[in-house]
Amino acid sequence: MNVRDSVSRKLFTAKTLVERGVFRPTRPDRLVRTGLALRRWGPTAAAGYETSAIRYPDQVAVVDELGSLTFTEVHRRTNALAHALADRGVGTGDHIAVLCRNHRGMIDITVACSKLGAHALYLNTMFSGPQIKDVCDRHEPKAIVYDEEFAEVVGAAHEGRTGIVAWSDGLVNTGDERLEDLVEAGDPGEVQPPPQKGRVTILTSGTTGSPKGANRKQPESLEPVAALLDRIPYRAREHTHIAAPMFHSWGYANWMLAISLSSTVVLRRRFQPESCLEAVARFRCTGLVVVPVMLQRILELDSAVLDRYDTSSLRVIAASGSALPGELAIKVMDRFGDVLYNLYGSTEVAWATIATPADLRAAPGTAGRPPRGTVVKIFDEQGREVPQGQTGRIFVGNEMAMEGYTGGGHKQSIGGLLSSGDVGHFDEAGRLFIDGRDDEMIVSGGENVFPREVEDCLADHEAVEEVAVIGVDDEQFGQRLKAFVVLRADIDTDALKAHVRSNLAGYKVPREIVVLDELPRNATGKVLKRELAAS
């Protein structure tokens, strides 16, 4: 990078952060203390809460089912927890496994790890016991922090490790210490910054195999934050309801944005459509963070229930984690206004593109355009960049891409850009469209078919609520398409086949359509196609 580019990026970052209210006038003494804290910690979770405690000591930082905590309280709680963990032998470079839903304990342990230079290993709340044991055997965490409800599922992974209960309903006597007790007993005094920064390891969803950890270093600057804020108009000191799970990269990224903005995060342990709307209305949230299936569940509520809650405060509904059908995007904006932003990315590449409300209105189903500082290119099988409009493999480069899998290995890389694992194309306006997974291509009778196109076609039918398409073995054609649908109205499956036939090529018509009550999904809303294939 030359000097001109470096200066340009710094000016862009400063301008964006000023516009979003991150940098604003403050008392000279607080300004000095804030600068010293940033110098000590760098752009980390530890710095986020210490600097917010300096600037907004009595403002609310976290709201969950137990009540609210100010920035000062979070800062002191995480100091105490860091000291308590250090007393139990946890130090720089150690791993701590975390199996928690969205609540204050999830924040406490992550920030305490940041202050110690320890690595937080996020576990998916839908992982099975053997999956959790496999992950813990590979990463060898010193301790496992879990919600009481997961006491049985962590049993095998717990053996030989310190256990800490982050959330307790008092229903199970685990015999482990409670996180709240560690906070109360710990020293709330300042923590000495560690010699090395800790990481957060986020696991892949495991929808196509064993979950793998993606190593991602802490950002070296605030440029990635500015790039996101340039496309998604969050502002400082607002309220954001993070409904998406925080153990997933999307929920985690929005929490980190909220820290940068000194915003209040509103958390609920479980997503329920009506309680989500109630939280938005009660706390006048300007931001709502979801995965697409959550939006679908909200729109399934009766109109009388939707009308019961005043959600006019919302300026941003931020969605990611799985495909956002174009029809759903339009319905959401027709109901809540043009406030929907869709981010496309993955655990490995972080983010690739962001679709604004204008993008989604103009081209429903688009994944949007790359934010500043991110490069997205589409290559063919020989590693050559393909022309506009042609489908190929998507490769992404930005500061937040993973450094590699924790057990070794990496995604394919071309020219410093990392494979997202998907295939797609750019339209004439430079908007990205996702055509499917690069490992989901179905070859039927010599023709290449990606399930996403057929899924979108079926989803456009008014009788179809949800749909997933897979390839199954066929003696005559090699593979054939099989669709699974959830219906909102009675319809004969032959009529659905005719709908596909009238919109797509004949070889893209599913030979079989199965009606289900619901599609199997993981905690982030992704359809578990391996379960469909086994059915």
Can you offer a commentary on this structure?
The strands form five sheets. The chain has an eight-stranded mixed β-sheet with strand order 2-1-11-10-12-13-14-15, sandwiched between helices. It has an eight-stranded mixed β-sheet with strand order 7-6-5-3-4-8-9-18, sandwiched between helices. Strands 16, 17, 19, 20 and 21 form a five-stranded antiparallel β-sheet that branches. The protein is of the alpha/beta class. It is about 35% helix and about 25% strand. The model has no long low-confidence stretch (mean pLDDT about 90). The protein has 18 helices and 26 strands. Strand 3 (about 95-100), helix 5 (about 105-115) and strand 4 form a beta-alpha-beta unit. It is globular. Helix 1 crosses helix 9, helix 4 packs across helix 5 and helix 11 packs across helix 12.
Q: Would you kindly provide a brief summary of this structure?
A:
The protein is an alpha/beta fold. 34% of the residues lie in helices and 24% in strands.
Write a concise keyword list for the protein shown above.
single chain; 535 residues; alpha/beta; eight-stranded mixed sheet; 18 helices; 26 strands; globular
